[in-house]
């Protein structure tokens, strides 16, 4: 079974790699929504996969790094596209959440991306075991 939680944060960014004149080269902001998913068996003793509070504990340090920030100034986010941000979040959540299967990042109601660890060195073993 899968368990998910949606976290929100507000941040500003600009995209430095877009062509000249692209609107996203200008400073602007988003109300980001991040969906964190874990997959595992429902423990018979607890009736849950893991406590949602454990997801909150893993997310909290990232919220402090991202909320009301200029993302381009955050280490590792000099080109803060949704894709780069999703991978950045994955790499910081995964050590605390071994059951992590997906990080979804939405910049607006109509766009976003999902990262499932496919760029990670152990991606084959992760996806083979969990999909
Ligand atoms: N593959 C990606 N493309 C774009 C990203 C991204 O992260 N990955 N990001 C942006 C910008 O951040 C932009 O703010 C979002 O652009 P857009 O989809 O145009 O959003 P709007 O709300 O401005 O959409 P409108 O339809 O113009 O209202 C761009 N591309
Ligand atoms: Zn943007």
TrEMBL record:
Keyword annotations of the record: Lyase, Metal-binding, Queuosine biosynthesis, Zinc
Keyword Metal-binding (UniProt): yes
Assigned EC number: 4.-.-.-
Alphabetized PANTHER family for the sequence: 6-PYRUVOYL TETRAHYDROBIOPTERIN SYNTHASE, PYRUVOYL TETRAHYDROBIOPTERIN SYNTHASE
Gene that encodes the chain: queD
Cofactor note: Binds 1 zinc ion per subunit.
Biological or metabolic pathway of the protein: Purine metabolism; 7-cyano-7-deazaguanine biosynthesis
Superkingdom of origin: Bacteria
Entry protein name: 6-carboxy-5,6,7,8-tetrahydropterin synthase
Organism this protein belongs to: Nannocystis pusilla
Segments traversing the membrane: none
Annotated catalysed reactions: 7,8-dihydroneopterin 3'-triphosphate + H2O = 6-carboxy-5,6,7,8-tetrahydropterin + triphosphate + acetaldehyde + 2 H(+)
Family recorded in the similarity comment: Belongs to the PTPS family. QueD subfamily.
GO molecular function terms attached to this record: 6-carboxytetrahydropterin synthase activity
Cofactor(s) the protein requires to work: Zn(2+)
């Amino acid at each position: 079974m899968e368990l998910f939680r949606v976290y929100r944060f507000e941040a500003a960014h600009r995209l430095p790699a877009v062509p000249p004149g692209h609107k996203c080269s200008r400073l602007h902001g988003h109300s980001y929504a991040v969906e964190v998913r874990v997959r595992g068996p429902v423990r018979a003793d607890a009736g849950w996969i893991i406590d949602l509070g454990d997801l909150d504990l893993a997310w909290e340090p990232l919220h402090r790094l991202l909320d009301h920030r200029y993302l381009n100034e955050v280490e590792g986010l000099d080109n803060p596209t949704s894709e780069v941000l999703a991978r950045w979040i994955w790499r910081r959540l995964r050590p605390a959440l071994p059951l992590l299967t997906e990080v979804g990042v939405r910049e607006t109601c109509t766009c976003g991306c999902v990262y499932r660890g496919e760029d990670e060195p152990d991606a084959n073993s992760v996806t083979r075991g969990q999909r």
